[in-house]
Structures are given as C-alpha cells and as structure tokens.
C-alpha cells in the first residue's frame, strides 16, 4: 500500500513543475509537495515527489488533523509564510491560497462598487483609490504591510526587499559584535585617569645611570681650562 506524506519548503532549483498549472516553480519560491512511497520501509530518497505552487496547492485532510508545527518543513519557514500556511489550513481540507486571493479580490470589487454608488448618490465624481500593489511599489518605507500579501509574491516567492533588509541588519549586528569583541580584548582605562608610567626595569635603570655618568663627565671637561700654547 502506498504511503503518502506532504511537505512545504522553498524550491531549491527551477527544475520542478506545478502539478496543477504545469508552470515552472521559480527557484526559492514557496512550494508544497506530495511524497509517495511504495511502503513505509522504502527510503525517502527513492520516493516520488509531486510539487505545487503554494498558491495552487490544496490543503490535504491530514493537515487539518495535526498541529501545524508537525507539518514537514514548517519550522524552517519565514514567519510570514507560517501565517499563510495557517490561513489556508483554517479553510479546511481543499482550501488554498488561491481561494484567499479570490476572496480578497471580490471584497475589493464590492467595496469599490459601494464607494462608487455612494459618490454618485452625493453627485460627486468617484475617484478610485490607489491600488495596494502600486502603493507598495511607490512606498519608500521598508516595513512589510498587508499589501504585500496580495502582490505577485502571492505565488509564494520570497520577498527580495525583505531579504535585502534582513541582510543589512545582520551585517550591522555582526559589525557591532566584532567591535565589541575587539574592545573587550583591550584593558579599559578609568575615565579621567592619567596614563600610567612605564614600568622601570633593570635595563632601563642601567641606561639611565650610564646617561647620567656621561653627562657628568662632559660637564667636568667643559669646566677644565684649556692648556696654553708654548
């Protein structure tokens, strides 16, 4: 009897195709897989994998019966993708991210129609709001917002903007740690304290004594009157 399990992960190449839409699954984009083995003794490396875009994948019933943390690959996901996974599971077996997109688009159209009707009833010209997709593209703020959930990234692709931001933050934190480590390796002088004098050794004492003797001898020679010429 075939053993079927499911997983979720980021694509490790661009060689897989979605079983539903038959399109290529982009590298590093979020994908879901169905793994089939002939029996439980068969090793996973010999299993057959069937991949889906996150948007195209339909929730299997088993995912609605186990804690989400036990789903294979869930702990390695970004926080935003963990939230997306939980949202489709709440839809129940057969639920998908595509359904959430459709629900969002329907609500947007209904809200726009209501706003248009209200403007016409007041005798005003209806001005459509700036789309969230366009607003997100023109927004200089690097923080993620709800608009990001309904852009082209809905296919599950990793947000490049967030990746760049996280790399900058990690680089800054690493530099601060290196500076702190370097500072901790040096002796800390008390604020306002005068620099300590170098420690006197036997060698420095001998050099100082030799210099003092030479200076005294030079002084005697200078005081001695010069011999008169015959």
UniProtKB/TrEMBL annotation:
Localization in the cell: Nucleus
SUPFAM superfamilies xrefs: Glucocorticoid receptor-like (DNA-binding domain) (SSF57716)
Biased segments, Basic residues type: 163-174, 220-230
Regions of compositional bias (Acidic residues) in chain numbering: 139-148
Segments of this protein annotated with the region Disordered: 103-230
A single Gene Ontology CC term: nucleus
Keywords on record: Metal-binding, Nucleus, Zinc, Zinc-finger
Pfam families: zf-PARP
InterPro entries the UniProt entry points to: Znf_PARP, Znf_PARP_sf
Domain called PARP-type: residue spans: 6-57
Biased amino acid composition, Basic and acidic residues: 108-125, 175-187
Superkingdom per UniProt: Eukaryota
GO MF annotation: an example: DNA binding
Record-given protein name: PARP-type domain-containing protein
Native species: Actinomortierella ambigua
């Amino acid at each position: 009897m075939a053993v079927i399990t499911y997983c979720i992960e980021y694509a490790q190449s661009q060689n897989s195709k979605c079983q539903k839409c038959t399109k290529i699954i982009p590298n590093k984009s979020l994908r879901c897989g169905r793994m089939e083995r002939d029996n439980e003794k068969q090793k996973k490396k010999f299993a057959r994998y069937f991949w889906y875009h996150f948007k195209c994948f339909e929730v299997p019933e088993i995912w609605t019966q186990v804690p989400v943390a036990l789903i294979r690959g869930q702990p390695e996901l970004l926080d935003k993708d963990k939230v997306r996974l939980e949202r489709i599971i709440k839809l129940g077996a057969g639920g998908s991210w595509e359904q959430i997109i459709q629900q969002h688009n329907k609500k947007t159209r209904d809200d726009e129609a209501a706003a248009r009707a209200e403007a016409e009833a007041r005798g005003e010209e209806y001005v459509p709001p700036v789309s969230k997709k366009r607003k997100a593209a023109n927004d200089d703020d690097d923080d993620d917002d709800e608009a990001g959930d309904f852009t082209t990234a809905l296919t599950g692709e990793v947000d490049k903007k967030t990746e760049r931001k996280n790399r900058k933050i990690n680089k800054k934190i690493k530099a601060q740690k290196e500076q702190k480590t370097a500072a901790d390796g040096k002796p800390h002088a008390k604020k306002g304290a005068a620099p300590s004098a170098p420690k006197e050794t036997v060698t420095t004492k001998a050099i100082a004594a030799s210099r003092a003797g030479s200076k005294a001898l030079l002084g005697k020679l200078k005081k001695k009157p010069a011999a008169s010429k015959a």
